[in-house]
Amino acid sequence: xxxxxxxxxxxxxxxxxxxxxxxxxxxxxxxxxxxxxxxxxxxxxxxxxxxxxxxxxxxxxxxxxxxxxxxxxxxxxxxxxxxxxxxxxxxxxxxxxxxxxxxxxxxxxxxxxxxxxxxxxxxxxxxxxxxxxxxxxxxxxxxxxxxxxxxxxxxxxxxxxxxxxxxxxxxxxxxxxxxxxxxxxxxxxxxxxxxxxxxxxxxxxxxxxxxxxxxxxxxxxxxxxxxxxxxxxxxxxxxxxxxxxxxxxxxxxxxxxxxxxxxxxxxxxxxxxxxxxxxxxxxxxxxxxxxxxxxxxxxxxxxxxxxxxxxxxxxxxxxxxxxxxxxxxxxxxxxxxxxxxxxxxxxxxxxxxxxxxxxxxxxxxxxxxxxxxxxxxxxxxxxxxxxxxxxxxxxxxxxxxxxxxxxxxxxxxxxxxxxxxxxxxxxxxxxxxxxxxxxxxxxxxxxxxxxxxxxxxxxxxxxxxxxxxxxxxxxxxxxxxxxxxxxxxxxxxxxxxxxxxxxxxxxxxxxxxxxxxxxxxxxxxxxxxxxxxxxxxxxxxxxxxxxxxx
Length: 550
What we know:
Layout: H1 2-18, E1 26-38, E2 45-50, E3 59-62, E4 66-73, E5 81-84, E6 109-115, E7 121-127, E8 139-144, E9 159-167, H2 172-180, E10 190-193, E11 208-210, E12 215-222, E13 228-233, E14 238-243, E15 246-247, E16 252-253, E17 256-258, E18 263-269, E19 276-284, E20 291-298, H3 316-325, E21 352-361, E22 368-371, E23 374-375, H4 383-388, E24 412-413, E25 417-421, E26 425-432, E27 438-442, E28 447-454, E29 472-473, E30 475-478, E31 482-489, E32 494-500, H5 503-507, E33 511-517
Signal peptide: 1-22
Protein name: L-ascorbate oxidase homolog
Keywords: Glycoprotein, Signal
């Protein structure tokens, strides 16, 4: 108890040092990361547990809460957690990726401290090191609106988090060995919902319960490694209300395609006969469809679920057309009192266009992925630390790729870092020339996904951008032989990761970093390095540079 009190006092002191809002509540967590035996597909395997749980504990927060998570690494490998979709305003020190943080060494701990500043929505956290994500260590993160901010729907009777995703029966070390030896992961062995795989007709305990006549909120996230999933609930409509931190126009759907790294919030009315119903998740765009189920039970139910599952859609054109129906709710307030639509992104002049083309190489029997001819590799010194200590030139080069991709069939393996002018409004085009779907994510930001279209991008395509009510989000899918256009202002100082959410591609180089530095070097734009930050690589043992001031 005394140690916990000391930790809280220390954190509050550090909060004052870095400018975190002292008046906003703090949530404290202590997480022990360990190995443990799990059997999600019926076969015992080594999993990664947090406080003995698989999936890990859920964080239940409110806008502007300060979250403090003391992570003890009891694994035999270095470990990090990243908080996907949390923007860490001015604070990339807490992002939990190898470009910003030294990994937590075995037998040691690190305390993350971040604020969910001006955010609401459904998010996930997961390991960013090696293939740890394939063994567990992931969980949900809810951020509720403050009471004074109206939500554009009545309070649900209850809220449920659904973490679904593909799963491999082999250990994360074996899977990593596949990738290191030049082999792809191959197709997954199954699909999970909240750590379990259910089969039709086989008795299952209910995962969730609903009371007739009431409405429930489901936060559905794809926490898998590779496969897009279609989510549906037998006999029920899905009303989409929020997507990756934005309130949406409230359309009804029979099912929703949820791509890797994406989270949706839906309302489900308990308006059917009181019995059991199957919740269904099945793979999309794989040769062999894999399906899992979970039971939703009505209170005082009178029957078993029908063994006839609702059909899944076929083909990616259906998914593209569904994307086109997603719209930002312009009149709803998000984390702040002003309506979302008061930010007119379509009226801002684009100052820079960056085209990122994903590619694959199998040269010399080694599988690698990358952007614009460069396959990223993480140096021993995190990029942000090298930059902060003014040693960037000894660790990496800026701008090794051009804004316009060059024609090449090879991939150069080196750190991939782009300089970004502070507060510039930038257009990024993700171009996918491959035959498989891609899912891309940007840390530290949300962006406007203004277009996803088949074919090849050209400047004339801007005429068809949605410049009014594209959803502000942090992940976007790009279909085979297609492209996606996003718009955002790079106003969050720090070093931020742009990556594929398909983890074998990320691990093998399909990622890069953007360095966003304010010329003022002021605490108004970026926080100083926290006192508890471990130092590694060439900055190990060095005195910290002079701190930023206001």
